[in-house]
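To whoever is on call:

I kicked off a structure prediction for a single chain this morning and the downstream step that reads the tokens threw a length-mismatch warning. I double-checked the sequence; it's 224 residues and nothing unusual in it as far as I can see. Pasting both halves so you can look.
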Amino acid sequence: MGIILNLETATTNCSVSIAKEGRVLVIKEHDTPNYSHAEQLHVFIQEVLKEVNMDASELDAIAVSKGPGSYTGLRIGVSAAKGLCFALDIPLISIATLESMAEQVSSKEIDFVIPVLDARRMEVYSSVFDKDKNEVRPTEAEIIDENSFADFLNKGKVLLVGNGAEKCKSVLSNTNLSFDASVVPSANEMARLSYKKFKAGQFEDVAYFEPYYLKDFILQQKKK
């Protein structure tokens, strides 16, 4: 039936949804700078299951945001997803964090959507999607300067979304460029993507799957 539990923990937003055939039945999320995923994730999983009066044994798959993003957040999400897959003997689906961010943009006036996640100093994680949500440039960790994304800015209107947008705004200036720093990765947008992979049988090896860190691990501390 395609009932999928979606877990998003790549950034400050701890987000959990249950979706049936790509349609979200219930979602629970909390965005906090304190990265409280360790305390919240399993509580949210229990709460969404209870809200739809469903037992975990009724799930057909688990989907998890694979990164890039917070090392600690990704480890927590992937560990929970793998544990559930092993316990329930169901497949694991991974969703690119930046792709689910691009899914939040619906404007047809935008030619390119570029999700940007803060990666410290003037560096961001980014990838580029066209107006049909096709990835036209893969994920990279890059240092932002006045020439960033010039190839796409010369071709049409570009929207930068995510918590790296403000950083980019301080450096980039172009009439084709707009910014939306309010977009955060969410299990809401994961639903359609995970169901598409479910139908195609695009599953991960639960034993060997690892998050997509992209950069070397740097310990993150909670903000006081």
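Update from on-call: the warning came from a stale cache, not from the record. Cleared it. Sanity check on the structure: The CA atoms of residues 116 and 126 lie 5 Å apart.
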